[in-house]
Design goal:
- The complex is a heterodimer of chains A (about 300) and B (about 160).
- Chain A is of the alpha/beta class.
- Chain A is about 35% helix and about 15% strand.
- In chain A, strand 8, helix 8 (about 235-240) and strand 9 form a beta-alpha-beta unit.
- Chain A is globular.
- The radius of gyration of chain B is 17 Å and the shape is globular.
- Classes of the chains: A alpha/beta (about 300), B alpha+beta (about 160).
- Chains A and B meet through helix 4 of A and loops of B.
Chain lengths: ~300, ~160
């Protein structure tokens, strides 16, 4: 039985059970198939973005509007009282008195949990520093299920910055629920952190580490690409040496499985070349669209309307 | 005969640890942690006599610190605080020069206020708020898990405390 998510905060993917996740995916699927333009009529979303965001903010705001709700908020904390030194706690306590649900992004880790202590209204975490971004993980799972027509027992490779990327950590943790076979493709200095690997081992999830995409590309159902940021490397020489190893090109797709799909949380810079976009394997733009339905489902569920 | 075999150091150590009429002896503190424990328990400001021994030889810890507090029995809450800084510590309650109670400290499953998160980007280091850590004891290692930034640290990585 999934948890009733009415008035619940969505802070961390680890706090959602498998049945919660499946429930959210199912509700998102229904909203994708059959829009409900009046479902949240009369409700107001507080869109509190203390840090720049394009997709997450716009898709939260569009999700609310497409369900008939209203949106107030800000995309730049310099225009708020934060600039005057107001604490996050006070800001959210006050905003919580105006709105029915809050979607927020903040550069500090743990900020969403702190915000949840300040208000009784549900907080949906749209990213707290390098910590969690649960709506991204849910839309990733939704997309995996959509393009593979199942979610259990898939072979999934995660490529790029696995050390610092919050998306990759949350996805690996969420896939524990679905008995995935995982392949981690990254330079050694950016490999999946030990605490995540220990969690996977404890749950008997099979995973392996690889240094290049070619080693695994023909085996997997999902190739989840992420961006490697140059500034993560203490030694710029090392970045120069490895930066081209993690670029996906059309020529690498010749012998992949027919059902293989490429995902990416976006924005991409150069890690997937443009010629891949037109292949049947590219699925990252559909993935970004799915963010809308996942966020609709979360808004409606936390407001008790689904 | 056996007395002749004892090293002078052993005699001094025994004297320092056990020659107390009433009070508490905190033994098996990892070397270097005793001053922090004294600060943490505010033992320096309770007007009781406190004796601090540092760098005693120890089989298990190689080197250990010992604290002796006269006329004060440590409460279980205070003992729990000691556990975070010195997970192997033992508490000896002394009455009339005898050890009447001896127990190992136990790390609480949730530690509030005491630890400062080593992650500078954790919200707890940027707002006026209390910290909360879950603890996980595995053999000899103690891991602490920040409930806010969700990072897991080895107990040794905690360098600062809210004392």
């Amino acid at each position: 039985m999934p948890t009733n998510l009415k008035n619940k905060d969505i802070i961390s993917i680890k706090e959602l059970t498998k049945s919660d996740i499946l429930n959210i995916l199912e509700k998102a699927q229904k909203l994708k198939q059959k829009p409900q333009p009046k479902l949240l009529s009369g409700y107001v979303l507080g869109s509190c973005f203390f840090e720049p965001s394009t997709r997450t903010r716009l898709s939260f705001e569009t999700a609310m509007k497409k369900l008939g709700g209203n949106v107030i908020g800000f995309a730049d904390p310099s225009i708020t009282s934060t600039k005057k030194g107001e604490s996050l706690y006070d800001s959210i306590k006050i905003i919580g008195q105006y709105v029915d649900v809050i979607a927020m992004r903040h550069p500090l880790e743990g900020s969403a949990r702190r915000a949840a202590e300040a208000t009784d209204k549900p907080i949906i975490n749209g990213g707290d520093g390098a910590n969690q971004h649960p709506t991204q993980t849910l839309l990733d799972l939704f997309t995996i299920k959509e393009c593979q027509e199942k979610i259990e027992g898939l072979k999934i490779a995660i490529v790029g910055d696995l050390k610092y990327g919050r998306t990759t950590h949350s996805l690996a943790q969420a896939l524990i629920n679905f008995n995935a076979r995982l392949y981690f493709v990254a330079p050694e200095s950016l490999q999946m952190p030990e605490h995540i690997c220990n969690e996977l081992k404890a749950k008997k999830i099979i995973f392996s580490k690889h240094k290049n995409i070619e080693e695994i590309i023909n085996e997997v159902d999902i190739l989840y690409m992420t961006r490697i940021q140059g500034e993560r490397f203490p030694d710029p020489m090392e970045y120069e040496r490895i930066k081209n190893v993690y670029i996906l090109k059309e020529s690498m797709l010749n012998n992949v499985k027919k059902n293989m799909r490429i995902l990416h949380p976006l924005p991409r810079v150069n890690e997937i070349t443009a010629d891949v976009d037109n292949t049947k394997h590219a699925y990252y733009f559909e993935q970004a669209e799915n963010g809308l339905y996942i966020r609709q489902a979360l808004l409606a569920l936390t407001l008790g309307k689904l | 005969m056996s007395n002749q075999k004892k090293s002078p150091l052993k005699d001094i150590r025994a004297y320092k640890v056990f020659a107390i009429k009433e009070g508490t002896v905190i033994d098996h503190i990892k070397a270097g942690k005793a001053l922090q424990i004294i600060e943490l328990l505010k033992l320096d400001s309770n007007n009781k006599i406190v004796t601090l021994g540092m760098n005693f030889p120890s089989k298990a810890l190689k080197k250990k610190d010992i604290i002796k507090v006269e006329q004060k029995e440590l409460t279980p809450e205070e003992a729990n605080k000691v556990a975070i800084l010195a997970p192997q510590a033992t508490i000896n309650i002394i009455q009339d020069f005898k050890v009447v109670k001896k127990f190992k400290v136990k790390i609480p499953t949730l530690v509030e206020k005491l630890l400062i998160c080593p992650n500078p980007k954790c919200i707890t280091n940027n707002e006026n708020m209390i910290t909360r850590f879950k603890t996980n004891v595995n053999k000899n290692s103690v891991k602490v898990h920040c409930e806010y930034c969700e990072k897991i640290f080895d107990q040794n990585e905690i360098k600062n405390y809210n004392i």
